[in-house]
Amino acid sequence: MSPKIVDRDEKRQQIAQAAIVVFGQKGFERTRMEDVAKEANVGKGTLYEYYKDKGSLLNDSFELMMSHFTEELEPQVAGDAPPLVQLRQITDVMLEAMLHLGDVYRFFLEYMIYLSRAPSPSPFLAEMLQGFRMRIAELLKAAVHQGTLRPDLDPLATAAAFLAWFDGAIFHWILLPETIDLREMADQFWEMTLRGILRDPSTGGE
Amino acid sequence: MSPKIVDRDEKRQQIAQAAIVVFGQKGFERTRMEDVAKEANVGKGTLYEYYKDKGSLLNDSFELMMSHFTEELEPQVAGDAPPLVQLRQITDVMLEAMLHLGDVYRFFLEYMIYLSRAPSPSPFLAEMLQGFRMRIAELLKAAVHQGTLRPDLDPLATAAAFLAWFDGAIFHWILLPETIDLREMADQFWEMTLRGILRDPSTGGE
Amino acid sequence: MSPKIVDRDEKRQQIAQAAIVVFGQKGFERTRMEDVAKEANVGKGTLYEYYKDKGSLLNDSFELMMSHFTEELEPQVAGDAPPLVQLRQITDVMLEAMLHLGDVYRFFLEYMIYLSRAPSPSPFLAEMLQGFRMRIAELLKAAVHQGTLRPDLDPLATAAAFLAWFDGAIFHWILLPETIDLREMADQFWEMTLRGILRDPSTGGE
Amino acid sequence: MSPKIVDRDEKRQQIAQAAIVVFGQKGFERTRMEDVAKEANVGKGTLYEYYKDKGSLLNDSFELMMSHFTEELEPQVAGDAPPLVQLRQITDVMLEAMLHLGDVYRFFLEYMIYLSRAPSPSPFLAEMLQGFRMRIAELLKAAVHQGTLRPDLDPLATAAAFLAWFDGAIFHWILLPETIDLREMADQFWEMTLRGILRDPSTGGE
DNA sequence: TATGAATGAGTATTCATTCAT
DNA sequence: CATGAATGAATACTCATTCAT
Questions:
Q1: Whole-model pTM above 0.70?
Q2: What is the mean pLDDT for each group of 10 consecutive residues in chain D (206 residues)?
Q3: Contact criterion met (CB below 8 Å) for C192 and D136
Q4: Among A79, A161, C113, D6, which is most exposed with the fewest C-beta within 10 angstroms?
Q5: What is the Cα–Cα distance from B78 to D129, expressed in whole angstroms?
Q6: Residue D6 CB in 7 A reach of strand E
Q7: Looking at beta carbons, which residues of chain C come within 8 Å of D115?
Q8: Please, what's the b/e burial string for C157-166 (b: 16 or more CB within 10 A of its CB; e: otherwise)?
Q9: Which residues of C touch D109 (CB under 8 A)?
Q10: Domains parsed from chain D with CATH numbers
């Protein structure tokens, strides 16, 4: 009765994954559906068995990409470590993820810009940024409580600055991967920032 | 030399200016040459009297945009002020420019991504980023010399971090203009950073 | 011979029947094989177990439709009634069939047009029309023999006119089912044809 | 200032005229836009300078075709002739038009079927048919007044029957142009209708 | 020089048909 | 046999670019 048995969800992912790669390399407008098909090792028509059109493939690919990030992030962060250590871990893990997935982050940037052009601001975008910010802010707040950071620190504002630096650093690195050493940049930023936000700068955060 | 030449340059600029606007609004791939023509109040065919193709219009528009920035920047920065004041002025002036030209900065972002996809890394891009970095680094170095900043400060690394933050902040603001107060973000970053890099944090940099 | 064969014919018919319905609703070019499959409650692939391609399904469906008509027609016409009564019965029965099968007759029209486009004129088409014409002409001839109709009547020509009116009437009704009362139209045509429209037929309208 | 000067209306017509031809030959669904372009001696893209899409080209072509008919019809009908003569003239002129434009009438048929499939009945269709019917009915009414036709004649019903015959005759002729002599068919119909087919009309066929 | 009409290469998408299960 | 997943040929439509005026 039943023909070819296929895990449709898996195939959808396979396609979305291929799209992530190609969108990252060429950008949305310049990738042809055939490129995606080739990358996914399926026929052009097959894409349309799984996605209504190029736009929904874009959206789904983005979501898949984001889930890769969170999947990669969470298991590597020790929930019981001191908050500042956790923060450093997050930075490092995400930085490493970027280093592996350069083109993909380019796709991320493009998609953000694309979303930002929508006539009404994307709630998704706001939530995502807000989510990151809260996550960081929580850790900072905990560090303040512990007495590691200055009591007058504004956790949300600091988190926002931190994220801005992070995305900007990635952005610059995407632009000039050869010229920029992301890991060193992180060290420098960390050093500069810590001495600024520690209650007692002379201790260096220990 | 002849009056016609002045005319031509003016018209070229008029077209490039229109392109800046439209590219900013719709993105490069999605703006049609006709959109640019309409915005520039010329016929579609006229564009090709002044630009070989869409690509060279893009490049030229970008250059024009950059010159707007430098033109706006320079006169407002007092060359004889203390270096840290100059740095703050630069930040403020550019921030204000962004606030006026949101869409245009989106165009900037897009163009950067576009350049970064070129098969060989764009020397222009490297120079531009390097140029900004040097400019900032010089000011920081001067401030170190003056004794305002910590003597062990690495000016180039700090400048890089500063620029990363700046571009990231703009990026976030472009994404969510309603949710983000650029000026406040700058204050926070400045405050956080200064206390970290000053020789004597208790003075607050004065 | 084997029970399977009966099954096959039944299924072929089931599919052709479904095709009649869908072709009637959407037209040949606009129905997708999947529509037919769904209407026939079989899988898309199954269609190709029974029909080589869409074209042969079309042909077969048409034949099935025509057989429906003849099946419906014959038993309701009393072979021993006076010829003019038989003619009227034929008209009525076919008209009723149309009223039940409006969309299907649309399919008929389309198929006719389709056939007429074939590079060489379809012998089938000619035979069918000729067959109808002869059938009517026979009845008219009998009525002439009986003395009910004028002896100088040209039976074939009159049959042709009759059929033209019939198909034209159906055509108009298909176009505007709400506005046209087929049964009344038939009555009027019958009356007009039988008695003529001239006040004084003997003059011939001069 | 102004470039190529083109009579856009004329070009629109040129294209619509080409479309009439090709739609007539191949049918709407099977004609590719390129076929139309070739027939109109323009590039594929040019079609879209004048028509939004294939559908509106279809609609416009149909309107143009209809205007051809009316243009051809009116000047050849003597408004001061006796009504029955006018009616005969109309029949003849339209028949001749058909003989010249066979494929085009096929396009007409197809378009009618297409319209009839629209979810809500096309007012255009109703008006057109009604218009023809009224035109004929007026002539019949005049002939009744003059005493040429039977006083108990129902002009509208008779007009409807007349039109049904006409379209049916054309339809059959389109199907089998070789086998059917339209002019003779018209003669026969005219004769039959005028005088009736009963030997003794006064009995009504009972 | 300025223009917009003309063009066709390029692309997303559809759908008849095939084929692995 | 039956199925629906897979496929790619076919096609409407867009838009950068050319060109006649």
A1: yes
A2: 75 96 95 97 97 96 90 78 90 88 87 88 86 92 89 90 94 90 91 77 54
A3: no
A4: A79
A5: 84
A6: yes
A7: 175
A8: bbbbbbbbbb
A9: 109, 113, 171
A10: 7-68 (1.10.10.60), 77-197 (1.10.357.10)
